[in-house]
Amino acid sequence: MTSQPAAAHAATTEDFSRNLAAVRERIARAARSVGRDPESVRLLPVTKTIPAERLRLAIAAGVDTLGENKVQEAHAKYEEFKQDYPHLRYSVIGPLQRNKAKFVAQFADEFHALDSLRLAETLQNRLEAEDRSLEVFLQVNTSGEESKSGIEATEAAELLAALKPLDRLKPVGLMTMAANTTDEASIRASFTLLRETLAELQAAGAPEEFTQLSMGMSGDFEIAIQEGATVVRVGQGIFGARQYPA
């Protein structure tokens, strides 16, 4: 990825306000550089490994969505915050095992990593039981790296078509992670492929609301925005360098 440094460690509401403002300014500059409205890009804070006490400070500073890779961690935070912050939205952005689909169905507002019909069918069944619906992004592997989840770009049309009978799932767009490299051209190529895939699906009759591109993280979201990102997933740019337990 590109070498944009992590933000300073945020320990107060003022710190979070400052970091959020800096990220939003970067978003705005990137959008304007290609003639886009900054309001067309949604900031999705990635809150994995961030404890509840720090998240309360971030929420006070304006964080209104929690993006989590692990559904168990996301569910725990939902249980922690649902009484105090009923307005919060929850995004599960990492791979999901089918036996964990019940948790997503209980609380999540959106899921960014749908990569198989079997998982979609499991989610549909769980959502029916919970009487809920779920916005979903199809995850596409645009870098060709075996370490990354996601379908091939050429498989997106087939999966999207297969979702039509699953009325509890609301497909809204595509998600990807860029190539794991410092080469900007390779990073940009990952994002370009996702944008072009979305355009092809729209031309072929995708649902009207299928317009979103979830791509770009703390180190590369400016490039993603230049290539059409509508959702950028930013963690370290808001919270500072991630601190893992010893």
The radius of gyration is: 17 Å
Oligomerization: single chain
Q: Strand count, sense and closure of the main sheet?
A: 6 strands, parallel
Give the proportion of residues in helices: 40-55%
Estimated share of beta-strand residues: 15-25%
In total, the number of strands is 8
DSSP helix count? 9
Strand order of the largest sheet: 2-3-4-5-6-7
Order of helix and strand elements from N to C terminus: HEHEHEHEHEHEHEHEH
Mean pLDDT: 94
Low-pLDDT sequence parts = none
The shape, in one word, is globular
Protein name: Pyridoxal phosphate homeostasis protein
Keywords: Pyridoxal phosphate
Domain Alanine racemase N-terminal: 19-242
InterPro entries: Ala_racemase_N, PLP-binding_barrel, PyrdxlP_homeostasis
Feature tags:
alpha/beta; six-stranded parallel sheet; two-stranded parallel sheet; 9 helices; 8 strands; 41% helix
Describe the structure.
Keywords: Pyridoxal phosphate. Residues 19-242 form the Alanine racemase N-terminal domain. The protein is α/β, with parallel strands linked by helices and 246 residues long. It has 9 helices and 8 strands. It has helices at residues 13-33, 52-61, 71-81, 101-107, 117-130, 156-162, 184-203, 221-226, 236-239, and strands spanning 42-45, 65-68, 89-92, 110-114, 134-139, 169-175, 212-214, 231-234. α4 crosses α5 (117-130). It starts with 12 loop residues before the first helix and ends in a 7-residue tail after the last helix.
